[in-house]
Amino acid sequence: MQPRRTWLSRRSFFIAPKSIRQRVMAYLNAEAIQHRSRTFDIPFSRQQLADYLNVERTALSKELGKMQKEGYIAFRKSHFTLLADTKDR
Q1: Would the pTM count as exceeding 0.90?
Q2: What residue spans of 3-88 are helical by DSSP H?
Q3: Contact indicator for 84, 71 with CB cutoff of 8 Å
Q4: For residue 28, with 0-12 CB atoms within 10 Å meaning exposed, 13-18 middle and 19 or more buried, which class applies?
Q5: Integer Cα distance of 14 and 30 in angstroms
Q6: β-sheet with 73-76: strand ranges across
């Protein structure tokens, strides 16, 4: 497990963006890089991810649904796939 200081530093990077979408994409892109794959599992439930990103769970779920509908991501529970080049989004 990561030391607490590293975890807090990493978390602050993800909550700095203003929009929920920016926070989610920053987190998912970092996870993809860490896993060296566009397909990966995250270590959080939806509520835990919302807490980690400092957003409401309902707003997070709504944004994830929009992102999936728009073709940015695919997901089922904690399994995610980045579908498009997300750097510019």
Answers
A1: no
A2: 4-15, 20-35, 46-53, 57-69
A3: yes
A4: buried
A5: 9
A6: 39-41, 79-82, 73-76
CATH class for domain 20-82? mainly alpha
Residues 6+ apart with CB under 8 A from 64: 24, 73, 75
pLDDT tens by residue, 12-56: 667 676 899 999 999 999 999 999 999 999 999 999 999 999 999
**Both structure tokens of 58:** 């309902």
**Host H or E run for residue 79:** strand 79-82
Structure-block tokens of residue 31: 């996870």
CA distance 51 to 70: 24
- DSSP reduced 3-state for 51: helix
